[in-house]
Design a protein that fits this description.
about 70% helix; about 0% strand; mainly alpha; 11 helices
Length: about 260
């Protein structure tokens, strides 16, 4: 809307969200079993590096394999801070806080970009209400530091949705392909619906869709197959195996069931 932009004021939502996230992280620093693969994989990348034989997933692979690309990304961002902790011989407990804090920072940055676009399109009042709702709710800011597949996917989903709001369909398709092929195949329902809406309103043609979808699909699929085949020591597309296991074989109950009564 009209008026000068105030950079300091624009940063306030980011700082508020990050502060509340840090409170959640410090008050509840420990993890649960669903987070174990990605957290352990990040640990192994940071501490065992190229010594793949020491990696934990060989002994505890879990019900289905997961991609190492998420842990690799978080490890890359966390490594300077982990190096400083290692110099001072700090406990790995603080390394865990750093890793989870970095993940939370990625989510908050992506959300911050989204709320800036909301402010641009709908005004500062709507953006303020969005931020107040987000800060006052428990779920997002508590879970954004949890190393779950959903949370690793979340920054890319938020950036994809922001690109869709901006009618930047190229980045939207590339980010959507990344998150669907690498982390959560079921997101094809949500992101595919957004793409369908754009096609119905003639904001993108079928030719433009294929121009971005074909190379992005090939590149992200090749990336995960090559990287995860190395780590898992067998030809593998992790998210494809998850989709087959849960959907085609219908074995999702092996994750556990909820008993009533």
């Amino acid at each position: 809307m009209g008026g000068k932009q105030n950079p300091a004021r624009d940063l306030l939502p980011f700082l508020l969200l990050f502060t509340v996230t840090c409170v959640h992280l410090i008050v509840c620093p420990f993890t649960k079993v669903e987070e174990s693969f990605n957290l352990q994989a990040t640990h192994d990348i940071l501490y065992h590096r190229f010594n793949l034989e020491k990696y934990d997933h060989h002994e505890f692979p879990g019900v289905v394999p997961r991609t190492f690309l998420g842990p690799m990304f978080i490890s890359l961002l966390s490594s300077p801070f982990i190096f400083v902790l290692s110099v001072f011989e700090a406990s790995k407990f603080y390394s865990q806080l750093i890793v989870r804090g970095v993940l939370g920072l990625c989510v908050i940055f992506a959300y911050w970009k989204l709320q800036k676009e909301v402010k641009k399109q709908f005004g500062s009042s709507v953006a303020t209400l969005l931020n107040l709702t987000t800060v006052s709710q428990f779920h997002l800011l508590f879970y954004c530091t949890r190393t779950l597949p959903n949370v690793l996917a979340l920054p890319f989903v938020l950036l994809a949705f922001t690109a869709w709001m901006q009618h930047r369909h190229g980045p939207f398709i590339w980010l959507s392909a990344l998150v669907i092929i690498l982390f959560r195949s079921d997101l094809c329902l949500l992101l595919g619906l957004l793409l369908l809406i754009s096609m119905l309103y003639k904001r993108i043609s079928l030719l433009e869709l294929l121009y971005h979808a074909v190379p992005s699909g090939i590149i992200w699929l090749a990336t995960t197959v090559v990287i995860d085949t190395i780590f898992w020591k067998r030809l593998l597309w992790p998210e494809g195996e998850v989709l087959w296991y849960n959907t085609v074989l219908n074995k999702s109950s092996n994750w556990g069931v909820s008993f009533s009564g």
